Amino acid sequence: MQERFTKADRLRKRSMFLQLSKTGKKVHSPYFLALFSGNSLARPRLGVTASRKVGNAVKRNRIKRLVREYFRTRGRITVPAGLDIHVIAKREAVEQTADRIFLSLQELFEKITRKQGA
């Protein structure tokens, strides 16, 4: 599988995020909340949000970069194809190391996989 995180792998339009918030299922981890729902594509797509409550721009961008990196390297493989996933960062994520964030994301994506199968 290609390792790049292309435009086709992203949720980009506001309408996509709004649709997920209306129809998606929720799962939590210590540092993230995720909404997910099926799509008609053969690949999972990811959208990431970190509000100003999370921290300044540098901190928000770091969190978003780590989430995208996890999805690019590991998350895309673990979740079933045909899912749209919106990951929302919690305030607690800012103070964590990259390893802790990756563990939290691993837990989150495992919950998504289990809940999708149910």
Automatic annotation (TrEMBL):
PANTHER family: RIBONUCLEASE P PROTEIN COMPONENT. This is Ribonuclease P protein component. The keyword Hydrolase applies. It is an enzyme of class 3 (hydrolase). Consists of a catalytic RNA component (M1 or rnpB) and a protein subunit. PROSITE patterns: RIBONUCLEASE_P. Belongs to the RnpA family. InterPro entries: Ribosomal_Su5_D2-typ_SF (IPR020568), Ribsml_uS5_D2-typ_fold_subgr (IPR014721), RNase_P (IPR000100), RNase_P_CS (IPR020539). Its EC number is 3.1.26.5. The keyword tRNA processing applies. Pfam families: Ribonuclease_P. GO terms for molecular function: ribonuclease P activity. HAMAP family: RNase_P (MF_00227). Coiled coil: none annotated.
